[in-house]
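Dear Dr. L.,

I hope this message finds you well. Following up on our conversation about the binding site, I have prepared a predicted three-dimensional model of the protein together with pyridoxal-5'-phosphate. For your records, I am including the exact sequence and ligand specification that went into the calculation, followed by the structure tokens. Please feel free to forward this to your student if that is useful.
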Amino acid sequence: MIGFMTSEETAGGVLTIDLAAVAANWRRLDAMVAGEVAAVVKADAYGLGAEKIAPALAAAGCKTFFVALIDEGVALRQFLGGGGEAVVYVLGGLLPGTEKIFTEYALRPVLNSIAEIHAWAAFCSACGEKLPAAVHMDTGMSRLGLPGRELAALINDPRPLRAFTIGLVLSHLACAEDADDPKNAEQLAAFDKAAAAFGDVKRSLANSPGIFLGAEYHFDLVRPGVAIYGSNPIPGKPNPMAQVVSLQGKIIQVRDVDSPKTVGYGATHAVAPGTKIATVAVGYADGYLRSLSNLAGGYVGDVRVPLVGRVSMDLITFDVSAIAADAARPGAFIDLIGPHCDIDAIARQAGTIGYEILTRLGSRYHRRYIGG
Ligand SMILES: *Cc1c(COP(=O)(O)O)cnc(C)c1O
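The resulting structure of the complex is given below.
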């Protein structure tokens, strides 16, 4: 996904992705559930690079993958290499006229409506083959999946289901991050009831936070995404997952302020004489969100350096008055995501969630994969 060459010397930031931590997170979830642990690698493995992440997960033992789009599935098949043993489901389902692509790349559609079920059944009948697919029941998202009325129609006339193989019946939780939300138990009951209509087929309900709701949510297969990538699946409690991502921004200029001044667009931050400002070559074009302006901080070693002024497209500014000259110089780094400031901390400061920080990590960083 990187459109141009980068190097540690030339890039404005270095993004380090720990593949050993990815594998350890997947294994940790695997130890929690009796059934199968799949991996959701949509959106280029939440921005971390499916080309590297998917093979690392396969090596750890993962056998089933989920993507959002057909094109992501086609790419994933190539990343996973030959053999075609891994099962790949496309959550976005069957789009009109795309049936042949699923067979060509051995992808399985997640059928999200009765219309998609009819289309897949017709395609399988024409091929003379009972090709596998998943069926998605809506139990409370009103987004994708069969609503109750379509399930009732299917129970009334189950003939289309006989034309293909149901590899999985799944549904998706709306409020799993909040263990106390009564919607979790409501969706669990609705899913139990809906899945029973399909008889003896594999069932799947839980995403990352859903896994932590307890064993009754696990069924035959769980579908974690964000927890594998190190974001906390149980907000408000200590993060049980290992950190996967760290980001260092490069200082390109340091100045000693000699008279009262302001920093950056909008002149939102005043600086007194004697202040030392470091300018770092990372900005909102790199996914360092503008809402972090005057809120976030970086770290030089264990010392916090406040971000001062607005985040601009390519640049951010830090007050490094507390940092020695040899550590605050052009070419040196400031930790933007690291041990003192993880994905979820940045997300809180930006007023968003770890998912958005991860999936927006920019393409201009030099990406370094370790632990592979
Ligand atoms: C994205 C997604 C997941 C993974 O969710 P996480 O919260 O990242 O674990 C699982 N199931 C479905 C249907 C999804 O769309």
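In brief: Residues 63 and 167 are 13 Å apart (CA to CA).

With kind regards,
A. P.
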